[in-house]
Write a structure and sequence with these properties.
Layout: H1 2-30, H2 37-74, H3 76-94, H4 98-103, H5 111-126
Helix pairs in contact: 1-2, 1-3, 2-3, 2-5
Length: 132
């Protein structure tokens, strides 16, 4: 039962990461720069959703870690499952992280847009909840 719960928790985490990356990719496909207030609003919406997804990710990690440690203490077979899954998840999390970085480094058409965009980017990186 523990392996199934563990694998389910990891599947949920990977699905959340996949959906988050896909959302960023869609945003970047539509917006190569912040040219007007509509672009900024679209960026703010995407950043908010990413921040909330990160909070959900943290919540999902807690039971996943508990299950992982229980499985590691249970036996070699379960430890092998954990190590395989963790390696796969680690590799998946490292693939294509550039999208998020690119979305926070878009050129802006005006100094006002750049200032607002910079504040959103700063909040996205530093705050748990959106401050915009």
């Amino acid at each position: 039962m523990l392996p199934i719960l563990y694998l389910t928790s990891k599947a949920l985490i990977v699905a959340l990461l996949f959906l988050s990356r896909r959302q960023i990719a869609r945003f970047l496909k539509r917006h190569s720069q912040i040219a007007n207030s509509q672009d900024l609003q679209a960026f703010m919406k995407m950043a908010r959703q990413q921040m909330y997804a990160t909070l959900l990710y943290v919540v999902l990690l807690i039971p996943s870690f508990i299950l992982m440690f229980l499985l590691l203490m249970k036996g070699a077979k379960d430890a092998a499952i954990v190590m395989s899954v963790e390696t796969g998840v680690f590799i998946f999390t490292r693939i294509d992280r550039e999208g998020e970085k690119r979305s926070r480094n878009l050129p802006c058409a005006t100094p006002e847009l750049e200032a607002s965009y910079g504040n959103v980017c700063k909040s996205w990186v530093n705050d748990a909840f959106p401050k915009f």
